[in-house]
Design a protein that fits this description.
Helix content is 47%, strand content 10%. It is α/β, with parallel strands linked by helices. It has two domains: 2-102 and 204-330, TIM Barrel (Alpha-Beta Barrel); 106-196, no CATH class. The strands form two sheets. Strands 1, 2, 3, 4, 5 and 8 form a six-stranded parallel beta sheet that branches. The protein has a two-stranded parallel sheet with strand order 6-7. Helix 2 (45-51) links the parallel strand 2 and strand 3 (63-70). Helix 1 packs parallel to helix 3, helix 5 (106-114) runs parallel beside helix 10 and helix 13 crosses helix 14 (269-277).
Length: 339
């Protein structure tokens, strides 16, 4: 049985400029690592990839892979030293344009806009005003049609209005319009210095190279954190190929074997078929909750959100598998709305 755990922000939120960002407190991360160390064997990304070959070594019993999405600076400053102290490895998934070009992704613009302290109703009204103002410039559908595409479903961590706000910017609006509108809200409520903000938020290429040299795995996570299922077949293929090229700039050569991490956990049948064709892409992970008993679906591997695991204590894994099953039965992704 393989357990893959998913992390995003790991920091002491109350002691940062953005205390309302949703993430895992450093203390809780340390407690969770101690828990995992007692009950699992933490494996490296290289170990996992090697196990996918016919003659590859099998994984140890109760194997666990720790994954860290989006290439956040937290992963170097907070996560890395704590993994090294425990002799553990992690798999890190940076976004190419965030690292190389200082672009703050829509997903992180949204996180910080929501954490800016502006009341949700006021933010939502402001978003609708921008949509109305730029409707002709971007040939946008009516507000009614856009909202109809964002009817809130069952999501574990957000209220209905917040879900609609995120879905409008992350899914419903045409991509060019979403970048422009999210950018305007970001400038108003977060920062007018996007490049400086990105430098503080994301890992640098040198930090990623250092992490790789210390035994950490680096995988693909797209170029601009696009929803794969919303792209054309050509667009999906381009994003995966450019993810591979980005990895080559970290490692100094094209990777012989690598893992794709679908942004937002978004994929469809075309994505799976394309992943099989991309040179060296051996596996892909989603945000579906679950445990892995075999590699019968290597390009649709589920993960557990950090919130699905204990953060301290000695409860055995069987104590929380019921909670994981309940999450699976509720359906939906564990973190698509926050990832």
């Amino acid at each position: 049985m393989l357990t893959i755990v998913m992390y995003h922000y790991v920091r002491d939120m109350p002691n940062t400029p953005w205390p309302a960002i949703r993430g895992l407190l450093t203390h809780d991360f340390e407690g969770q690592l101690d828990y995992i160390g007692r009950h699992y064997t933490v494996i490296s990304l290289d170990q996992l990839l090697a196990a996918t070959y016919d003659d590859g070594p099998p994984l140890p019993g109760n194997a666990c892979l720790l994954t860290f999405d989006d290439g956040l600076r937290d992963h170097h400053d907070v996560v890395l030293p704590r993994l090294l102290d425990r002799g553990m490895s992690g798999a890190f998934f940076p976004i190419a344009d965030a690292v190389e070009n200082g672009v703050v992704m829509i997903v992180h613009r949204v996180h910080h806009i929501l954490a800016s302290g502006v009341e949700m109703g006021a933010l939502f009204h402001e978003l609708l005003e921008l949509i109305d103002a730029w409707r002709d410039a971007y040939e946008l559908p009516s507000t009614a049609d856009l909202l109809a595409a964002c009817i809130p479903g069952a999501v574990r961590y957000d209220d209905a209005r917040t879900i609609q706000f995120k879905r409008l910017l992350q899914q419903a609006l045409p991509r060019q319009a979403a970048w422009a509108i999210a950018g305007e809200l970001f400038r108003r409520h977060v920062s007018a210095d996007e490049a400086g903000f990105a430098e503080e938020l994301y890992l640098s290429i040198d930090q990623l190279r250092t992490m790789a040299s210390l035994g950490m795995g680096i995988g693909g996570h797209g170029v601009r954190h696009d929803w794969m299922e919303h792209l054309s077949r050509h667009g999906q293929r381009e994003k995966m190929l450019r993810s591979r090229e980005f990895l080559s700039r970290i490692h100094g050569a094209m990777p012989e074997a690598w893992l794709m991490n679908y942004p937002y956990g978004s994929y469809d049948a075309r994505t799976v078929a394309l992943a099989r064709e991309i040179p060296g892409c051996r596996l892909a992970v989603t945000t579906r909750p679950g445990l892995i008993a075999d590699f019968s679906k290597p390009y649709e591997l589920p993960r557990l959100d950090t919130n699905d695991l204990p953060r301290q204590g000695d409860a055995p894994p069987c104590a929380w598998t019921l909670a994981v099953r309940e999450a699976m039965e509720r359906g939906g992704e564990t973190s698509r709305e926050v990832a």
